[in-house]
Amino acid sequence: MSTAPRTTEEHAPSPSCCPGGGHRPLTDDLTGLLVRRAWEIRASQALASARRRHRPLALLMGDLDRFKAVNDTYGHLAGDAVLRAAADVLRRVGGAVGDAVCGRYGGHAGDEFLALLPGAGAEEAMAAARLVQQGVREMSVPAPVSRGTTVTITGQTVSLGVAVWDPADPAPGGLSDLLLDSDVALREVKRTGGGRIRLAGAPGTPDPRPAPLLPGPFHAIPPAVRPSWLPYGGTHRAVPAGTWWDAVRMPGRTGLLVLDALLRHGDRPPGPVIADLPGEAGGPGGAPEGGWERSRMYFLIPPRAAERWELPGARVLGRGSYVVVPDAASVRPPGLHWIVPPAADRRLTSIRALRAALETAEAVEAAEAAEGTAPAPCA
Predict the structure, then answer these.
(1) CA–CA separation, 247 vs 222, rounded Å?
(2) 196 touches 129 (CB < 8 A)
(3) Which helix (H) or strand (E) is 43 found in, with range?
(4) Do 206 and 196 form a contact (C-beta atoms < 8 A)?
(5) Alpha carbon of residue 336 to chain centroid
(6) How far is 101 from 219, CA to CA, in rounded Å?
(7) Which of 58, 284, 308, 366 is most buried, most CB within 10 Å of its CB?
(8) The pTM of the whole model exceeds 0.85
(9) Is the CA virtual torsion 82, 83, 89, 92 positive or negative?
(10) Contact 50, 118 (CB under 8 A)
(11) What is the mean pLDDT of each run of 10 residues along the chain (379 residues)?
(12) Alpha helices in 299-350 (DSSP H)
């Protein structure tokens, strides 16, 4: 009777062992996920099992976007709270898709995570990545910023690189190859602005950014198919910005991209938001005169919230400023109109969410400029 030689990965020691004969912690104290060494051992064992059973296996590598800004703005204890919440999302998704092996990649101070998915092919891995993306986006994390002061952090996003080990591949490689492929895919996502998913080896660009929630100028959308947060009937008086809020004014196209990014971070729109249309007459293709270059959008935020923040391309209208809102029953006349109306249960947009949305809008505009694509026509 003969036995086939075992691979190096199959010789991997038990996760409780270390070369010196002692014991190392298996999990990270902060997140409860496997530490890097324990993850590598269990991942190697899972890959060896996939080889024996001739089954696929996938790896997700995630990196929290703009995580340094959380530490810089709210402190490192707040950053720890975000890391714990993200780890909970990873565990939840990993448990839902099967016997996932979840761990930290960057050590105690890092914001990178790993999830190995035994039995998952490309389709299943991408579906799991989207669940992670959604879970991180929906996180609401209470965190202390000082003694007696707590904030709730929302709007966090994650970039994900996905790689698949396929037993049918003539040279499928090992765990180090899987890590390298997912890392390359993740770097490609970060270079294009983050917040997206990339499947290693897939042709084209990273997982396409979802189609805009606003397909064009909101006044061009037929009333019958407008979402509930678009302009609605009713007359609104002048709103003193310094009384309840300040206004952040942006160019129309940038403002539209910012609103689109904000809408994707929650199950209801941030608000209120006001648009100032320059008119409807005539440019080419029926675009409003001057198009979005001449229009403006106003995002209303808590008073004095923007004093310590830089908002490139935007102007903060602080105390004493106001915006006049005429009849919003029709959006055809030029003027200021609600896109997201005020409501008793609607929170004002936080300055942090607004800044993150601005970064997303800048990344979109930069990508379009690099690709040589013109903005979508205002038709």
Answers:
(1) 28
(2) no
(3) helix 36-53
(4) yes
(5) 30
(6) 49
(7) 58
(8) no
(9) negative
(10) yes
(11) 39 43 73 93 94 94 89 88 95 88 81 94 92 90 85 87 90 88 92 87 60 57 59 54 78 84 67 70 38 74 77 80 59 63 71 84 78 42
(12) none
Cα 277 to Cα 252: distance, rounded to the nearest angstrom: 8
Taking 3-state DSSP, the helix, strand and coil percentages for the chain, each rounded to the nearest 5, stand at 35, 20, 45
Strand ranges in the chain using DSSP code E only, listed in sequence order: 57-64, 101-104, 112-118, 141-146, 149-153, 158-165, 197-199, 239-240, 246-251, 273-277, 296-301, 315-317, 322-323, 335-340
The 10 Å CB-count burial string (b at 16+, else e) for 164-192 is: bbeeeeeebeebeebbebbbebbebbbeb
Distances (CA, A) of 295 to 221, 285, 336, 339: 17, 17, 10, 14
Long-range pairs, 148-152, Cβ under 8 A, ≥24:
151/74, 151/78
**Amino acid occupying residue 259:** L
Q: At what angle are helices 351-371 and 252-263 packed, to 10 degrees?
A: 120
Phi, psi at 162, each rounded to 5°: -120, 130
Q: Return all residues near 260 (Cβ < 8 A) that are at least 6 apart.
A: 212, 213, 214, 361
Give me Rg for the CA atoms of the chain.
Answer: 25
- pLDDT attached to residue 18: 43
Q: How big is the chain, counted in residues?
A: 379
Measured CA to CA, the distance from residue 82 to residue 289 in angstroms comes to 45
* CA gap 298, 327 in Å, rounded: 17
Q: Is the peptide bond before 272 cis (omega within 30 degrees of 0)?
A: yes
For residue 268 the two structure tokens come to 């209801």
Contact 295, 288 (CB under 8 A): yes
Write out the DSSP string of 105-134: SS-TT--EEEEEEET--HHHHHHHHHHHHH
pLDDT of residue 375: 42
**Could you tell me which of 298, 311, 351, 358 has the C-alpha nearest to residue 154?**
351
Q: Which residue type is seen at 204?
A: G
* Strand 322-323, strand 315-317: pairing: unpaired
